[in-house]
Amino acid sequence: MTMKIAIVGAGAAGLAAIKYSIDQGYQCEAFEQAEVVGGTWNYTDQVGFDKNGLPIRTSMYQNLRTNLPKEVMMFENFPYKASLKESYITQPEVLEYLNDFAEKLDLKKHIQFNTLVTHIEPTEDDKWYVEVQDAVSKTKQKKIFDAVIVANGKYHVPNMPSIPGLDTFSGHCIHSHDYRSAAPYTDKVVLVVGAGPSGIDISMQIHPVAKKVFLSFDPSCEFAAFIPKTLSHKVSIDKIVDNRVYFKDQSVEEIEEIILCTGYHYSFPFLSKKCGVSVDDNYVSGLYKELVCIQYPSMVFMCIPGSVCPIPTYELQLRVAFAMWNGHLQLPSREKMLKDAEEERKSKSCSNRKFHRKGIEGERLYWDDLAQIAGVKSVPNVVTKVHRYCFTQKKDTSKSFRIINDDEFEMVDQIN
Ligand SMILES: Cc1cc2nc3c(=O)[nH]c(=O)nc-3n(C[C@H](O)[C@H](O)[C@H](O)COP(=O)(O)OP(=O)(O)OC[C@H]3O[C@@H](n4cnc5c(N)ncnc54)[C@H](O)[C@@H]3O)c2cc1C
Q: Does residue 411 lie within any of the structural domains?
């Protein structure tokens, strides 16, 4: 009997999972709480809850351009349309690409839209019990699968920092998950907290309209070198009292609006404890190679590693998962996998919260390690070269990246 796979989510990762399942000759059913594909690339004005009373998952905002060139945001053998000359493209262009991928490969027929996965539990006969709920009627259904691919995204449960006195702040405060556009910040004094990609991008968006934008960050943070000098830099916050923010360098500012760009938590509220996967200060334990559920290897998780090129990572992870399910990859014993995960955790001196962050060199090591253990094709070297170039060279938006082969790229004028 053909193996039947449940896929949680129909964002970029879920779509890739459907394609790989079908290509490998398996049956699959994807469950998506929204009524569309594309996950976080779907912009909505709404925040909070959707029309069905479910939490809004997307963290997308107006006028977003990608922070990676589209040449490393591509599914294998599925290029962006030729009329798109620029490398750093807009949110609607990425969404169109994901929709095209789903349409042209006829993936949508495998997706149950408006369907929330509410519970996943291993059965006694090595299968998976998956409970889903119709988002509209609220009726629940129980289904049985042989394997599960968790592709529920990782940018929808805000990490709220514990800043002394934040609860006394008399202005307006949101997390970047709920940021939609610069307009509400017109003529306001704004403090953006956190200088990851969203913190920097949002600060730059509101800078032209706001009265003043302060960006508070830890100078040792990963992206410190990319923070534009036009923003007023601030060190970390010491405390907040009413509308006054006291910083650790003793400076004080009166602030009207705060935007917390402080990241997200991994969240798998539907997973039974029996899976042995848990999240501790954003470290996901119980996984082999940040991918395979050690307790039940018929379950895998897409893109736990952070600061990576997501789409090439999903595809490699899927090649590894199917090598395992097709019997080409023999996993070590559970004990060895647990030891491996534990040793990996100990080998990094960072906090749990930062453990999954790879960065360019870390992502290369991760990719090659995965590919090597499974005997599958790794992500082409050119992806690393482009990724490294983006973060080490000054951005020149008059030029685009052109991939020459698996190892080389060139910069070309956009009219080419
Ligand atoms: C603001 C922002 C900017 C970004 N910019 C870039 C960029 O420039 N380049 C880049 O490569 N990446 C970027 N990313 C990263 C982006 O998240 C990934 O590129 C990718 O789209 C993530 O896809 P995903 O499928 O893993 O997750 P998502 O897109 O989050 O999709 C997960 C899907 O699962 C569904 N879901 C969740 N839980 C359930 C459940 N219980 N039941 C049913 N369905 C469920 C959700 O509704 C959602 O549709 C950005 C992310 C954000 C938030």
A: no
294 and 249 share one domain: no
Assess whether 30 and 125 both reside in one domain: yes
Q: Are strands 292-293 and 237-241 parallel, antiparallel or unpaired?
A: unpaired
The residue whose CA has the least distance to atom 8 of ligand 1 is 66
Whole-number Å distance, alpha carbon 305 to ligand 1 midpoint, is 13
Query: Could you tell me which residues come within 8 angstroms of residue 270 by beta carbon, excluding any fewer than 6 positions away?
Result: 8, 117, 118, 119, 120, 131
Residue 410 located in a structural domain: no
The pLDDT assigned to 225 comes to 78
Check whether residue 254 and residue 269 sit in a common domain.
no
| Residue whose CA lies nearest to ligand 1 atom number 27 | 153
Q: Are residues 284 and 368 in the same domain?
A: yes
Dump pLDDT digits (tens) for 309-357: 999 999 999 999 999 999 999 999 999 999 999 999 999 989 999 999 9
Does the beta carbon of 152 lie inside 6 Å of ligand 1?
Answer: yes
Please, are residues 216 and 142 in contact by the beta-carbon 8 Å criterion? no
Q: Are residues 235 and 300 in the same domain?
A: no
CATH of the domain at 289: 3.50.50.60
Domain end position, chosen among 260, 288, 319: 260
Does 32 contact ligand 1 (Cβ within 6 A)?
yes
Rounded to an integer, what distance in angstroms lies between the CA atom of residue 382 and that of residue 413?
A: 19
**Residues contacting 361, CB < 8 A, separation 6+:** none
Q: Give the whole-angstrom CA distance, residue 356 versus residue 284.
A: 8
Best mutation site among 41, 96, 152 for ligand 1 pocket (most ligand atoms within 8 Å of CB): 152
Our count of domains for the chain comes to: 2
Distance CA 350, CA 412 (A): 39
Residue 14 Cα to ligand 1 midpoint, Å, equals: 9
In a shared domain, residues 231 and 285? no
Residues 131 and 173 both lie in one domain: no
| Full residue range of the structural domain in which residue 183 is found | 166-260
| DSSP of 273-317 | GGG--EEETTEEESEETTTEESS-TTEEES--SBSS-HHHHHHHH
In this structure, what is the dihedral angle of CA atoms 70, 73, 75, 81, given to the nearest 10 degrees?
-20
Q: Is residue 34 in a domain?
A: yes
Segment 5-22, tens digit of pLDDT: 999 999 999 999 999 999
As a whole number of angstroms, the distance between CA 34 and CA 49 comes to 12
